[in-house]
Design goal:
Structural class: alpha/beta
Strand content: 15-25%
Largest sheet: 9 strands, mixed
Shape: globular
Radius of gyration: 21 Å
CATH class of the largest domain: Alpha Beta
Length: about 375
Amino acid sequence: MNKPPLSLYCHVPWCIEKCPYCDFNSFKKNSSDDFEQYTSALRQDIIDSAKHAENRQLISIFIGGGTPSLFPTKEVHRILDTIYSTYDCAPDCEITLEMNPSSFESAKMKDWKQSGVNRVSIGVQSFDNTALSRLGRSHSRTDSEKSIQTALDMEFDEVNIDIMYGLPDQSVSEAMADLRHGISFKTTHLSWYELTIEPGTLFSKQPPNRPDEDKLHQMDMRGQELFNKSHLEQYEISAYAAKGSRCKHNMNYWKFGDYIGCGNGASSKITTHHGITRYQRYRNPGLYQTAPTHRCVEHQVEHSQQLFEFMLNHLRLHEPIELASICDRTQLTKEEILNRCHAALEEDMLIITDSMIEKTKRGNRYLNNLQTLFL
């Protein structure tokens, strides 16, 4: 087992409002919440966590949330300056910042770019103002259009937009209008995924009227037809990219790379000569700020669980898996891996050659079932 590539994730906790579908570790910003104080805690975390790099360069940095674009630009500068002075960043390091589409946050893009941000991810979700209202979003179609165009005019290396389908009371034609309009901007990346109702969210307590399974299937099929005619190619369940524009950060997650997570609730995966360690920071922002380097949860990934964790991530991708890469990033032998694949082979969900494992059409269609076969 060798040490894989390394990424860094920095979490910021606050949003203008908590969306009714969101189960992320985010909180509505209150007047007592202090950006500068939180950034200071995050900087401590970043510096303390650098010991896990062990001479590896960072291939990607991702500032997510929450809504990172809410943070004053000086705090974004402080976060990135701390990273630059503490870690060795690869020359082509991908540096992403998530943002809401609003004029207030669009005005900050020039400063972000000067700080080194080379990829922005814009949470559009829908271009339909009625749908946005149902989702509890505070921006409008015009806000989204202006934010996307500003990001393109600023010539960031990569621009991603997020769009959801299967929204409350959404028709197939409305879902396709959203996707068609999103594709028309010709961004380098587009994430398109179905709205899911997660436990603990407002939507789980007060379920909205969502499209039935037949309509969802139509949305998916017609959406794929639009992508097939576009400049974007699907490379993961919900990710579509122009040539050479796959998200390095997410690819590292999906290929079972290592990542350091800093910020409240952030998780880390670190490979050592002893095995694979996972740990997590305090989820509550206030508690995190009192102890930003404390590991509230920590465990070694058991030998028996390593193939499941690898497959849970890598099977999301639309590409074969090299057997050698599994051996390289786990403590498993080729023989152990092949033995664990028998059930998937019998279910006609995998094809295996001497060096590669690949999903069949059936395996791709019933991906959740395929993943559970490795439990």
